Amino acid sequence: MSAAEGETVRASHILIKHEGSRRKASWKDPDGRIISATTRADAAARLLDLRNQILSGQAAFADLAARYSDCSSAKRGGDLGTFGRRQMQKPFEDATFALKVGELSDIVDTDSGVHIILRTV
């Protein structure tokens, strides 16, 4: 096993699901009514607004994740814990491993929806 294969990261994220998401339900929207009516463009616009609030210092990442993320990690401020290669969807993995610790990603598309990712370790 090479060092790269054994590398792990820790990250938090905010997920906004949309009509194209593979699972159209979340802790916030158990019936998926809102998610099914949300376009990818609307989800991305909402996420960009949240990203701008974080970058400008208006809001903390964990607070926004707890309030707006469609992932169950919201209850942990978006924290996904530590993970290695091949444990997340490929676009999410690639984006997370490319970030420096403390860096916030641009929008990342996966089968789950659109995300912003904060690498924490």
TrEMBL record:
Residues 6-121 form the PpiC domain. GO terms for molecular function: peptidyl-prolyl cis-trans isomerase activity. It holds the Pfam family Rotamase. GO terms for cellular component: cytosol; nucleus. It catalyses: [protein]-peptidylproline (omega=180) = [protein]-peptidylproline (omega=0). Keywords: Isomerase, Rotamase. Its EC number is 5.2.1.8. The keyword Hydrolase does not apply. InterPro entries: PPIase_dom_sf, PPIase_Pin1, PPIase_PpiC, PPIase_PpiC_CS. The keyword Isomerase applies. Belongs to the PpiC/parvulin rotamase family. Prolyl cis/trans isomerase with specificity for phospho-Ser-Pro bonds. This is Peptidyl-prolyl cis-trans isomerase.
